[in-house]
Design a protein that fits this description.
Elements: E1 2-11, E2 14-26, E3 29-31, H1 33-54, E4 58-62, E5 69-75, E6 80-87, E7 93-102, E8 108-113, E9 122-128, E10 131-137
Antiparallel strand pairs: 1-2, 2-3, 4-5, 5-8, 6-7, 6-9, 9-10
Amino acid sequence: MRISTFKIYRCLPALLVIGLMPAVHVNGQTASQPVNAVTAKTAAVNTIADAAAATAIKVRSFPNPFIDKITFTVTSPVSGKGVLELYDLTGRRLDLVYQGEFQAGVPKNIEYKVNLAPRTPILYKFGIGLKTVTNMIIRYN
């Protein structure tokens, strides 16, 4: 039995509207071409998200909060010269943690002994090429 229906599918990040498409009901289930269009759209969104994740800089700091030393694990999507710096909350540069070469996709561990007096949160900024990541570390009192 063929029935014409109007279907609206919500697909992040866009609304996909497919109208008056024939739908076939077989054993209580609906099978139609719009389902394939939604599946293709969802697959495209997932591919874009995967591509964005593959090009993102990953910086992990541990332990956080720290007492007197901290380890940064940096993975860059591109090879080149990178810089890891510490800033206070007003934007004043406190220290240069590391400056050197990074290989694309290869994690690099950077250990840093914190000799800074402030017990307030500290911002770290890692940059390589045109990409930059900023986050916060906290000193344990």
